[in-house]
Amino acid sequence: MRNWTSILFLFAALFIYGCSAEPNVDPNRVDPNGDAVLLFQTRFEDNVIITKNLSGNDYISGVDKTLRELNSFDMLTAGSYKKPDYPVNLGKFYIGYESGDSTERKARIVPDPTNPKNKVLMFKMIEPNVRRPDGTVYKARIQANLSGANLYEFSQITRMYLHPDLQYIERYPKTLTFLLFMEWWNESASTNRPYVSRISLRLEKQSASIPSKLYFLLDSEDIVYVNDEATFHTRWEQRAKNFEVPYGKWMTIETYYKEGDANTGRFCMTIQPDGGDKVLLFNVIGATCGVENPIRDGLNSYQPMKFYMEKGLVEFMRDNGKNFEVYWDDFSLWSGKRQLMSTIVH
After folding, report:
1. For residues 223 and 194, is the Cβ–Cβ distance under 8 A?
2. Residue 63 DSSP one-character state
3. Average pLDDT over residues 250-273
4. Angle at 76 between CA 309 and CA 110, to 5 degrees
5. b/e per residue, 264-288, with b = 16+ CB within 10 A?
């Protein structure tokens, strides 16, 4: 009897393991305890590739077949991605550089620096690449864009890996706020229209002393354009000075955005380094759009993965022989707020 019981138990265990290990099943398709619905997901695997375009932008194409659905970059790049029976437009996806070529900056799908069997998206900065009309180079940019979206309330999950050399920025002989990794635009800067505002995730070096630690900074700015020149006015900011930035280690970042004024706007972000605890980094009740704007039309330009910085920082890393790279993986977008955010944001 004991032998038959053992055999049945082993068979059941193997059956359960085999079912749960199926790679094409996403158990988080609908968040059972939140109000979120999955809109798009990718692991940058299988036949997902980066393609060039004569405009100077790059595009990601292909379908990530390690996931069963909502996984087509072809539709997202074409700007035709809409979830069936769900009134959300994700906009058109592309990788933008503003200017320059692959000798200065590049985005590539490459093996994971910690696991060569895994594919990830890499942003690599080599030289400052953004030029003024007179040809003067003055900053550097690589960013994944969702342009033309209408996102009012949504969540994002992505994994990010800062190359270990980024810790060398602690020796940068200046203060620093101009180093951005994600950005949420309410009204696009490219339209040069009123009521433009943005939320930015940055690394900040508050002291010019060497060395000085970097910390995550989240801020919101209103942007006023006069004769195509932008003036930035900080509306709110939060610093995560109790969280030590992990270099050379993957971390999972989850964000929640809700368009609103000082009372109804919400922004929340958690971060979990591999092998560590999940930490609530930012929890904002405040304006997440241009509050004077009479129209609430959601985010229409959004950079879920970004590598944007001042010219001097790129030159500093280059001159000291450092790799200036950030990696991304397991990106997903959700309408509404997920279970974790539901426990935080009220």
Report:
1. no
2. B
3. 94
4. 55
5. ebbbbbbbbbeeeeeeebbebbbbb
Q: Are 215 and 243 in contact (CB under 8 A)?
A: yes
* Straight-line distance from the first to the last Cα atom of the chain, in angstroms, rounded to the nearest whole number: 55
Distance CA 26, CA 100 (A): 39
**Cα angle, residue 157 at apex, residues 332 and 276 outer, rounded to 5°:** 140
Q: Is the dihedral of CA 340, 343, 344, 346 positive or negative?
A: positive
Query: Is there a contact between 129 and 99 (Cβ–Cβ < 8 Å)?
Result: yes
Q: How far apart (Å, rounded) are the C-alpha atoms in residues 4 and 213?
A: 61
If one counts every other C-beta atom within 10 angstroms of the C-beta of residue 163, the result is 19
3-state secondary structure of 222: strand
CA-atom Rg of the chain in angstroms: 21
329, 112 contact by CB (below 8 A): yes
pTM, 2 dp? 0.87
Helix or strand run (H / E) with residue 257? strand 250-258
Beta bridge partners of 258: 153, 266
Amino acid identity, position 153: E
Alpha carbon dihedral 199, 203, 207, 211, in 10-degree steps, equals 180
What is the C-alpha to C-alpha distance for residues 172 and 153, in angstroms, rounded to an integer? 37
Instruction: Write out pLDDT tens, residues 140-170.
Output: 999 999 988 888 899 999 999 999 999 999 9
Spatial CA neighbour of 344 closest among 34, 36, 39, 37: 34
Provide the token pair at 116. 């060569």
The alpha helices in the chain, defined as continuous H runs, are 2-20, 73-78, 311-319, 339-344
Residues in CB range of 38: below 8 A, 6 or more apart: 26, 28, 29, 30, 70, 332, 333, 334
CA 298 to chain centre: 18
What is the DSSP track for 140-195?
EEEEEEEEEEEESEEEEEEEEEE-GGGGGGGG-SS-B--EEEEEEEES-GGGT-TT
Spell out the residues 6+ positions from residue 289 whose beta carbon is closer than 8 angstroms to its own: 186, 187, 195, 197, 259, 260, 261, 265, 296
At 133, list the tokens.
């009309």
pLDDT single digits (tens) 215-243:
999 999 988 777 777 788 899 999 999 99
